[in-house]
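Page 47, continued from p. 46.
Same chain as before, 183 aa.
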Amino acid sequence: MSEVEVTEQNAEPRIKQIGTLHTPYKRLKEVPYQSSLSRSEVGSEVVCEIEVFEEYAGGLKDIEGFSHLFVLYWLHKSKGYSLLVRTPWDSELHGLFTTRSPNRPNPIGISVVRLLGRGREGKRGREGKQRENLLRVSGIDAVDGTPLVDLKPFVPAFDEKGEQEVRVGWLERIGWLESRIKK
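Result:
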């Protein structure tokens, strides 16, 4: 018998919730515009918790070896969408797919987070064991209770573009990034 369990997938696109994001942001207006802006008023990192449902917890094996993760989540508070949108940083209309607006045909959010640890500090489950399906992270820009749809490791050799020329479209024109890029 194989140690790897393979589950059958349909060709039709479907997304399955695999967990829940627990954040201090109870209302949409409290959520930072971008995950890199998710710091408390005093400038410290905001610590959030990712709860992976027990039936998917086996997929967290070896996750402690990664410092950062991609977190994909369903923006369940999203209300419709428009193909042209205004952002908080520019008064001009831009194509939806050139923005990070949460209101999209498929409202999928993505954050790169820093993994701080696994299990809940100071608390244990019913049997007195650490809850190994919980991840403590910083850098989430989502409202409390947001459905988790996937986790992937951030691997600089795969995910950073290095020497390649990276352009950021209309954000270059308005100069918004210049003061925010760490050089």
